[in-house]
Design goal:
six-stranded antiparallel β-sheet, alpha+beta, about 20% strand, Glycosyltransferase, elongated, four-stranded antiparallel β-sheet, about 575 residues, Beta-galactosidase, Chain A, domain 5
Length: about 575
């Protein structure tokens, strides 16, 4: 994809200006147009993959998600084509909206696009078309969603139908019901879990915050905007730390093929004035992410977004991923709703958190610890609170980063007797420089884990109970590709350093360090040092010293920092110092 040169691009790490974003959106729209059906109601993108919802639903997905892109760009020429497709779609081409069906998802994108561009699209439609379209959308008001972010799709449809005065009472009830439902999942400090349990990932930003805040903003409802905008503002303080210095988002969670949809909450904060980020930082983070993907093959030689991360990569897909699924990346173009003279577009870019200073940041609702290093721009996420076993390994590994991806060889894992599973995660706390949890294995064992971090260095410790004496323990490190160095060294209870192929699907093959140990007659400590870095750092043993002081206690002495005493006992972790 060829984007315009712009003298305001400050450095290779700097992102794009508004001109770049407009051109990128226009190029993506132009590339999908040849794949529209003759009546323009469906977009059947090429490829041999069909989602579990079927080809017809996939074609609707292609229409809805690219319509959203045209709406953010306010592309009147494109919107005329989508108006033709809307008329044909609601005349009997599109599948009906039923309980827990994919058309419910796509109805939300269509409704949002119509609401954002009402004078340009909806108000220009013939009245019979408007009536049929409203009737098709209205099925979303009563369709049962999956109990997760799907609860917000009827909210989004209901908000539009309320605005045009169609089934106002049913629309209001759908809005109220969905907003009440997500209150059960708000866990404080700007974070939601995406449904019951502990499902924390980017859906917090591009779904759980996006739809309520946009609804409140479009409805001009000060009470709702104070509530949801305030939560968004708090969330962005953490969210900004999930981007690497090169623009890469954290490689964790599901639906990663949506790529720069991760930028939507950044733009949303600027759009509504509910953000702790400066205008220059907002643009740096958002445009840096767009550039990150476009520079790494996210768009193929036909100009189409591929099913993957950089290029095609089946490892990041789910059963619901169809050929047009990546076009929820359209959400990332939300910033085009900001006028050209908005300060986000005119301000000098400012470095994001990962570029400014080394940091170790606790995220308490998710029980995460974020560890970033300025020298290489890497961000690492130590996961002691997210779990969604349906999508393992993107939730259940001990750590993720902006530069690596989970491997089929179980990177960042504690493997007990050959069992790498990690379920029933119980957060045990997170604080300045540390995070801890315990979990169950499939074979019945319990693992209590803690990680302490400073700079790029990690001290990882765990205690395994409820397994038989002689059970083999394996601890693995990072799956690092070219340009990165992954280290894991034994301190206590572990030995026999091994290296295995990372088995990364679609990425650069690397090596995973592995340590082994054995459970004794009494549970003991297993301790290791680990590091993921792009820098030629000093030896790990020069950065930190660890002394084991009994079967459940050890002391960490950082060369340039504090002394910490750590105790793992009875499934709990206490840290002093």
């Amino acid at each position: 994809m060829q984007l315009p040169a712009d003298d305001r691009v400050l450095s290779p790490r700097t992102g794009y200006t508004r001109a770049h974003w407009e051109t990128a959106a226009g190029s993506l729209l132009a590339a999908v147009e040849p794949y529209a059906t003759e009546d323009r109601a469906l977009y059947h993108l090429p490829g041999n993959r069909t989602s579990w919802s079927g080809s017809l639903s996939d074609g609707l997905e292609g229409y809805a998600r690219t319509l959203l892109l045209a709406a953010f760009r306010r592309d009147e020429t494109a919107l005329e084509r989508y108006a033709d497709g809307l008329a044909a779609g609601v005349a009997g081409v599109w599948p009906s909206i039923e309980d827990r069906s994919q058309p419910l998802v796509e109805a939300a994108s269509i409704a949002l696009a119509l609401r954002l561009t009402r004078p340009l699209l909806w108000d220009r439609l013939d009245e019979p078309v408007r009536q049929r379209a409203a009737a098709w959308l209205a099925d979303a008001l009563t369709a049962e969603p999956w109990p997760c972010n799907w609860e917000l799709f009827p909210v989004t449809v209901g908000g539009f139908l309320q605005e045009i005065g169609y089934e106002a009472e049913a629309s209001r009830k759908a809005v109220d019901r969905g907003l009440e439902r997500i209150e059960e999942w708000y866990v404080g400090d700007g974070w939601y879990t995406d449904g019951d349990g502990r499902k924390f990932d980017y859906y917090n930003g591009w779904a759980m915050h996006l739809y309520p805040v946009l609804h409140a903003w479009l409805a001009d409802d000060p009470r709702l905007l104070d509530l949801y905008g305030g939560r968004l503002e708090r969330h962005l303080a953490d969210y900004a730390r999930l981007f690497g210095g090169d623009g890469a988002p954290m490689h964790q969670g599901r639906s990663l093929t949506y790529r720069f949809a991760t930028t939507a909450p950044l733009w949303l904060g600027a759009l509504t004035g509910r953000t702790p980020l400066s205008p220059g930082e907002t643009r740096r983070l958002a445009s840096g992410a767009l550039r990150y993907f476009l520079d790494r093959g996210a768009v193929d030689d036909r100009g189409l977004l591929t099913l993957g991360w950089h290029g095609p990569n089946e490892a990041v897909l789910q059963g619901y991923s169809g050929p047009a699924s990546p076009y929820w990346a359209s959400k990332g173009f939300l910033g085009l709703l900001l006028p050209p003279d908005h300060e986000v577009w005119t301000a000098t870019e400012e470095p994001g958190p990962a570029e400014r200073a080394d940091a170790v940041t606790p995220i308490r609702p998710a029980n995460w610890l974020l560890q970033s290093t300025r020298s290489d721009g890497l961000v690492r996420l130590h996961n002691h609170g997210s779990e969604d076993v349906r999508y393992d390994p993107y939730y259940t590994r001990l750590a993720y980063s902006t530069a690596t991806e989970p491997s089929s060889s179980y990177d960042n894992s504690v493997i007990v007797g050959g069992d790498a599973s990690r379920t029933g995660i119980v957060p045990l706390g997170v604080g300045e420089g540390w995070v801890a949890s315990r979990h169950r294995t499939g074979s019945g064992g319990e693992v209590t884990s803690v990680v302490l971090a400073r700079g790029a260095v990690e001290v990882r410790a765990f205690r395994v109970t409820e397994v038989s004496e002689g059970t083999t323990i394996r601890a693995t490190g990072w799956a690092a590709g070219s340009g990165l160095r992954s280290e894991i060294l034994p301190v206590a209870g572990l030995a026999e350093v091994k290296t295995a192929s990372s088995g990364v699907d679609g990425g650069q093959a690397g090596a995973i360090g592995e340590l082994t140990g054995t459970v004794g007659a009494e549970p003991g400590l297993f301790v290791a040092l680990a590091r993921l870095t792009a820098e030629a750092d000093t030896p790990l043993t020069e950065a930190v010293a660890v002394e084991v002081d009994g079967p459940d206690t050890f002391v960490v002495r950082w060369t340039d920092g504090p002394v910490q005493e750590v105790r793992l006992a009875s499934g709990q972790v206490t840290i002093a110092g």
